[in-house]
Amino acid sequence: MLESFYATHDYLVSHVDQSSYRHLLDEIDWSERLIAITGGRGVGKTDLLLQYAYRQKKHNPDLAREILYIDFNNFYFTEHSLYQFAEEFVSTGGKTLLLDQLFKIPNWQKELRDCYFHFTGLQIVFVASPLMNVDAPNSEISHIVKVYNLRGYSLREYINQQPQVTHSLRSYTLDEILAGHEQIAKEILSYVRPLNYMQEYLRHGYYPYREVNRDFSETLLKTMNMSIEVDILLNNQIEVAYLGRIRQLLYCLLSELPCSLNVSDLATRIDTSRATVMNYIKFLKDARMINLLYKDDKSFPKKPSKVYMQNPNLCYALPSRQVSQQDIAETFFYTSLHGSQKINADENAAFLINHKTKMDVFATMPKRDIFRYTAIADLEIGHNKCIPLWLFGFLY
Q1: Mean pLDDT to the nearest integer, 229-254
Q2: Are 287 and 131 in contact (CB under 8 A)?
Q3: What CATH number has the domain spanning 2-149?
Q4: Per-residue model confidence (pLDDT) at position 348
Q5: Longest dimension (CA), the chain
Q6: Under CATH, to which class is 209-310 assigned?
Q7: How far is 306 from 348, CA to CA, in rounded Å?
């Protein structure tokens, strides 16, 4: 039985795209016995598992049979449990299971917990939708799982993938950028001009797809629909009858974001209650489709100060809408910092970073004096508190 799974594993590992190397591979503590890789749909979670297997095989070819990738779309698991499979895998010398589509088996948390405590020499690494809430307080595995979040490409990662870029550009901390952005920009510009890649990245650079233009748009559309139909409906056990309302809500948001949230208007437009709208908003946020910006002292379920698409590529998902460069600049900035920094709305600036740093964001240089940190989209190299917006794409 295992041989057919090894054959699939060998094929997938040998064909995984190694050019789209993700640096999260180097940040994960691989000594942990139960590891979850979360992230929005389409950001490359499956490829990350396969890249890890490829790297292990390359470094330790004699140990290739100790690691195995499993996709629970396989009908074998309609009649066999993860525990049964793990038991046979361990009995033949297996050490590491890489699990995909785990949510499709019943009681997957209990299965993971049982494997963790019964097979003490087994490591399990699995990918998960953020809506699976693997580290929530009521999760059966929250006390034993180590969770890592995989984001889409940063601008830096996107540039590093380009064949004409031969120097690997490193990331910088926010403090490094705020304190020394002029020198950092000069160093990067000695190798590459990031503004030459900015428009490409904003339209189709966040997701690790190889297709662009029409093919990219179709792939992104499929990804968005799968996020709703599988990640949101299935994980939250929502009846399919409500699918249309969630899709309509996303259409309304795509038509307007970034914007403040008019919950009453949205409730009327999709014919449901205000409470249901806020629930759907939370689902879309957890599925990594939108970002909610709150003031420092507020959080969900309060109404956010502003709502953004989760990344700039999603802003272009509605071909009929003309997206302003100002909207794109703000979305890019929020996406680049979200996940690594605390971001809030501020009374006097566009953003408040880590409770202390006020930051404005502009598509073009404003015709006024700059007194606080300002990210400017059409700026190649900054001065004083004026920082090129592209440089925030080098935070990871």
Answers
A1: 93
A2: yes
A3: 3.40.50.300
A4: 87
A5: 71
A6: mainly alpha
A7: 14
Residue type at position 360: D
CA atoms within 13 A on the CB side of 308: 25
Residues β-bridged to residue 386: 374, 383
What pLDDT, in 10s, does the model give residues 165-202? 999 999 999 999 999 999 999 999 999 999 999 999 99
CB 210 within 8 A of CB 29: no
- Which residue type occupies 117? F
| Distance of alpha carbon 284 from alpha carbon 340, whole angstroms | 20
Q: Which of 258, 285, 283, 263 is closest to 273 using CA atoms?
A: 263
| Residue 261 backbone dihedrals phi, psi, to 5 degrees | -100, 115
Q: Count Cβ atoms within 10 A of the Cβ of residue 358 and give its class: 0-12 exposed, 13-18 middle, 19 or more buried.
A: middle
Domain segments of the chain: what residues? 2-149, 153-206+322-396, 209-310
For residues 205 and 216, give the distance between their C-alpha atoms in angstroms, rounded to a whole number: 10
Q: Is 2-149's fold the same as 209-310's? A: no
pLDDT band at 210 (very low <50, low <70, confident <90, very high): low
The pTM (predicted TM-score) of the whole model is: 0.91
